[in-house]
Amino acid sequence: MPSWRNFEEKLTLNLLLSPEEALEPLTIHVNRGRLGNQMFTYATLYGLGRLNRRHVRLMPQNYNALKSYFKLRHSQVNEFTFKEKHPWPIGSWLQPHDSHIPNTTNIVKGRLYPTSFTFFHHVQDEIRDIFQFQDTIRHYAQNVLRHVKRLRPWTEVYIGVHVRRGDYLSKSKGGWLRAFEGREVDIEYFRKAVDYFRRKYSNLTFIAVSDDRQWCKKYLPQFHILTLPFSPSPAHDLAIMAECNHTIITYGTFSFWSGYLAGGEVIYFSNFVNPKRRSNFPEEKMYPPKWIGISTTPKGFWDSYKNPFLDHDGNNVSVSKEIIL
Predict the structure, then answer these.
(1) Cα gap 131→40, rounded to integer Å
(2) Of 86, 125, 156, 220, whose CB count within 10 A is highest?
């Protein structure tokens, strides 16, 4: 296996070369995830394709999940004639050997939900260019910010705030925080994130989108965060976040793309996963190195941690008010 330094050198060289025209296009298997996961799937494929000098095509499910929102530049595979050849298994993040996908391989498999920026960060500017919103969505987002400007005419810097709740707080087996023994984002995190930007910039307006607007309207006004009305679709919310200068995120793939597409400074909620489970979620593989993590986890918290979504027998229990707040 090549050293990581040699891997970086090969990566740089490959990006300067054109894809091999004669090779069969590379595709990637699909998942049932929503917008953020579908974007990760596409971005992972593109990043691996560029690294290996391969043209790429999307599976129809991935293509159809994104075409209404973005100006897709890649075509889709004909699923009726497509036959897998030598599938290439990927892990949770990019490995040096992923730069050596055989020319005989026509599909990437392995990790069903790839959610690491390492698969595509070497072409980050191209990724932002790939995810160009359809004109109607982009214009909607721009009009929203114009309206905010009329309400707060002093605004020079927009900070997008994404608050993920919903299924992350679910008490079912599908709940992310339950499954990975995670700690829910708290009010103190927003206080610290807002303070960071206020110390650094002036004439700010913070605007929030969320799958739980009511929670935001109840708890975020104390930080002068404006919660926007519901948009026509999650993609419209994402477009609004992408138009902002900087971003505060919580967790989840939608949060990630909110910060990644905006391209400015990003504050993320750090140290929210039980250290015993962090091999599944190493922050250095999930968040780009320039992003800034803020932790509000008290010292010694994980030493006596008990999953708040389970009782001592492993059964579902209600989430307490303290946990929610």
Answers:
(1) 11
(2) 220
> 253-293 pLDDT, tens per residue?
999 999 999 999 999 999 988 888 888 789 999 999 999 99
**Local structure of 209: helix, strand or coil:** strand
Per-residue pLDDT tens over the stretch 141-195: 999 999 999 999 999 999 999 998 877 666 655 567 777 788 889 999 999 999 9
C-alpha gyration radius of the chain? 21
Edge-to-edge strands, sheet with 292-294: 225-227, 204-210, 157-163, 246-248, 266-269, 292-294
Q: Global pTM? A: 0.87
Enumerate residues 6+ apart whose C-beta is below 8 A from 160: 207, 208, 209, 240, 241, 243, 244, 246, 247, 248, 258, 262
Helix (H, G, I), strand (E, B) or coil at 51: helix
Strand partners, 90: 110
Alpha carbon distance 294, 272 (integer Å): 10
For residue 198, give the nearest of 258, 146, 265 by alpha carbon: 265
